Amino acid sequence: MKRFRTRAVHAGQRPDPLTGAHATPVYSTSTFAYGSFERGARLFEGEEAGFIYSRIGNPTVRAFEEKMASLEGAEDAVAFSSGMAAVSALAFTLLRPGDEVVYLAPLYGGTEGFFLETLQKFGVIATDAGDVERLEARLSPATRLIYLETPTNPNLCIYDLAEVARVARAHGILSCVDNTFATPYLTRPLEFGIDLVLHSATKYLGGHGDALGGVLAGPKELIDAVRMEGLRHLGGALGAFEAFLLLRGLKTLPLRMEAHCAGALRVAEYLAKHPTVRRVHYPGLPSHPGHAVARRQMQGFGGLVSLELPSREAAGAFLNSLELFTQAVSLGDVESLATHPASTTHQLLEPALRERHGITEGLVRLSIGIEDPDDLIADLEQALERATATTLVDS
Ligand code: 4LM
Fold first, then answer.
1. Interhelix angle for 253-272 vs 240-251, to 10°?
2. Is 200 close to ligand 1, i.e. is its CB under 6 Å away?
3. 242 and 267 assigned to the same domain
4. Where is this region: Disordered (predicted)?
């Protein structure tokens, strides 16, 4: 098998058989002519492989799925219109009333909200196991799925994938890791024995903040099941143009991730020395509680850095003073972004739940882009100066 950087460029893509087009064309078509009554019947029976209708398969989207399967080391992958479409398709395919999802918090606020509110309406229970040490004890006969992120959104906890996989396998329970923050360049969960890996492709996979997408990768049998139920019936299909943008983004994933990781480490080291910053969360800092595990399971520590300022007001003053960072949700773009999770990405969670997950009012999440780290640090420096002035006035 070719190495990762080579697969990022080539996997899933070949010259267009009809025209020889070198870049995978945007197959902007809803439906595909099957040519004859007999072939139509064979396609629908699954006796012959071929495209039928773009909600369940499209050549541009298929190239993206094949590239992602290759990068994650999975048998197959299925793409969606967003990360949340992937999460909901997975859940509605695998779970039945009475089943339980055990998850390791925190998660992206939308995912935890979906687990606690939407799934509950369909009789599925979602339980936060708290940490890996307590995971095994929290499983019940109804547990059907173990779900986690690592590093976690927004405060970058690290979970031990080998240990999660061991527990899941010992109990015959499926495990799924949302690998959005790490990307397959830094961590490939399936190599640790995890069953399924999910992404918001909107983030690092696309990398340029111009496309929404999601993807799920894993064993062919499970991917087929999710495609034929969760994708076909819920309908969250990835568009061909978005697939084209994601394919283009993926070619430079390794190069971008190197720049994100190098920049984030510089920023984290700078912030860790700043007197106004109460705490820095970055798995690349030796002081991070998950540093040793991160060293084992990541080939770089990622592009997200979170910092705790003394108060919500200080966080607001800091964010309003940033000039190079854009105040916006989302992450993984070439441009640096900054947000206040408690009032944005995790705002829907009950304050007590946020508190329990360590999503404090002073927490700010930075997505470090690929700009020159010296310019980013200069911007943080001037913004921290203004936040410090606010803090002094407050106290
Ligand atoms: C954000 N995140 O945090 P779509 N999984 C993870 C995520 O961070 C997200 C999703 C899934 C943010 C969006 C506003 C770890 C999203 C959901 O947004 O549906 O592609 O992915 O800023």
1. 70
2. yes
3. no
4. 1-22
